[in-house]
Write a structure and sequence with these properties.
Blueprint (H helix, E strand, L loop, with lengths): L4 E7 L7 H10 L6 E5 L24 H11 L3 E6 L8 H10 L13 E6 L7 H11 L12 E3 L15 H20 L4
Parallel strand pairs: 1-2, 1-3, 3-4, 4-5
Length: 192
């Protein structure tokens, strides 16, 4: 099959068996057949340090992990974030990825890239604070995103069965609607 759209999925948890990763895996099958959606790993990104991008700091070359990550984002037609909530905000690994993609100033990977966000939590708020903080961090880059309803998955451990599958039909339909609206935005904002 030939794919004509690429979606990078960023998971805001480094734990292999995290609920965020399971939710992300469940969304892959919700994209149209001509889309290739895959998780872009962020675990090996060094902490962001502007010296890596400062031409005057010749003793600190840009890490190859930064370059690979930035090129992968730029090569994507859209980005889906799946994030838990840590201490009322986004996990540090995800904020680091946002920062890495935001430099260098003249070549920002995020600029005008369609974006969708799914947040979750074990509690009833569904990761509300993490999603709002992530939206704030991304708002600087003019990233088109689906309108209401947003996706806050509350009590997320109860949504995923022992096989890592979301089996509740209403949740699957809700996620499918969101992914469909996201792909419409992707189609309307072709990669330059």
């Amino acid at each position: 099959m030939t794919f004509h759209k690429k979606i990078s999925i960023l998971v805001g948890s480094l734990r292999a068996g995290s609920h965020a990763r399971q939710i992300a895996i469940n969304t892959i099958g919700l994209f149209p057949a001509n889309y290739h959606a895959e998780i872009l790993e962020i675990r090996d990104l060094p902490l962001y340090d502007f010296d890596y991008d400062d031409p005057a700091a010749s003793n600190k070359p840009t890490p190859v992990e930064y370059t690979r990550f930035r090129e992968s984002i730029k090569d994507s037609d859209g980005v889906l974030f799946v994030t838990p909530e840590n201490n009322r905000t986004i996990p540090a690994c995800l904020k680091n990825a946002v920062d890495v993609g935001s430099k260098p100033n003249g070549d920002v990977a995020w600029k005008n890239k369609p974006v969708a966000i799914i947040s979750h939590s074990a509690g009833r708020m569904g990761g509300y604070s993490s999603q709002k903080n992530l939206r704030l961090a991304l708002s600087y880059f003019d990233m088109p995103t689906p309108d209401q309803p947003e996706v806050f998955l509350s009590q997320s451990p109860s949504l995923i069965n022992a096989d890592g599958i979301i089996s509740q039909v209403s949740t699957i339909n809700f996620l499918q609607d969101y992914i469909t609206r996201f792909t419409q935005i992707v189609e309307g904002h072709p990669r330059k």
